[in-house]
Amino acid sequence: MEAFLLECLAVHNDLLHLLEEALHLSPNALTSRCSAGNGEVRITHYPPVPIRQLKTGSTYRISEHTDVGILTLLFQDAVGGLEIEGQTKSSEFIPIESSNLNEMIVNCGDTLQRWTANYLRSANHRVTYPPGLQDEDALIPARYSVGFFGKANMSASMAALPEFASRLEDGVDIDERTAQEYYNYMHERTVAAPAKVSA
Ligand SMILES: O=C(O)CCC(=O)C(=O)O
Ligand SMILES: [Fe+2]
Fold first, then answer.
1. In angstroms, rounded to a whole number, what is the distance separating the alpha carbons of residues 111 and 39?
2. CB atoms < 10 A from the CB of 158, how many?
3. Degrees (nearest 5) of the Cα angle 87, 88, 93?
4. What is the ipTM, given to two decimal places?
5. Residue 66 CA: which ligand is closest?
6. SS in 3 state form for 19-42?
7. Which Gene3D superfamilies match (predicted)?
8. Most ligand 1 atoms within 8 A of CB, residue of 127, 143, 144, 146 to mutate
9. 140 close to 133: Cβ distance less than 8 angstroms
10. Segment 83-139, tens digit of pLDDT
11. What separation in Å is there between the alpha carbon of 147 and the centre of ligand 1?
């Protein structure tokens, strides 16, 4: 497990270096804000559930939300049901293919959205019934996923990088929170109102 966590941290770091290059940011603009290697691995087990319960909305596998961190690296089994909301105005949720167990899904989180002043958008996602299952009496089998959630240094700023300041009103980010303050705030919000959480 620890080896997997370290591997995920390395991949997360590599992806952020690639983003720095692709976005023409100064070297380490993103990676210096997460140099402490904060992140967690979570294995989620979704018990079998009648499709009817998910269709009526009386039960969720996981309701729509965005992840608070930088990038999420997600691995899922073949059961399916993960959906990501498109990012245009009239968007709908798009089912994510689950047949290839070697695929890694990369989601942008709220932290990266803030650092880029909304240039990169945090992915709103949920887990519901898999596509193609129509029989309301059918039982959806158990599902497992493994997620790595990359987090910023606790003392890192949540403000936009200077490179994205021109996207902000008046060119100044008034968010003075540290990542720790922001993560605590989001945690409180999730516990208080778990139905829909976004940045
Ligand atoms: O199980 C999944 O595929 C998604 C899990 C998830 O979105 C989360 O734990 O934040
Ligand atoms: Fe998530």
1. 13
2. 22
3. 60
4. 0.99
5. 2
6. HHHHCCCCCCCCHHHHCCCCEEEE
7. B-lactam Antibiotic, Isopenicillin N Synthase, Chain
8. 127
9. yes
10. 999 988 788 999 999 999 999 999 999 999 999 999 999 999 999 999 887 788 889
11. 7
Distance between CA atoms of 19 and 17, rounded to whole angstroms? 5
Task: Tokens 């996602």: give the residue.
Answer: 125
Number of residues in the chain: 199
- Residue in 68, 73, 90 with CA at minimum distance from that of residue 13: 73
Q: Which residue has the tokens 């139905």?
A: 195
Q: How far apart are CA 69 and CA 26, in angstroms?
A: 21
Neighbour-count burial of 69, counting CB atoms closer than 10 A to its CB (0-12 exposed, 13-18 middle, 19+ buried): buried
Q: What is the pLDDT of residues 37-74, one digit of tens each?
A: 999 999 999 999 999 998 888 888 999 999 999 999 99
Give the DSSP letter of residue 71.
E
| Residue located via tokens 């968010």 | 175
What's the 163 CA to ligand 1 centre distance in angstroms?
Answer: 31
C-beta of residue 115 within 8 angstroms of C-beta of residue 168: no
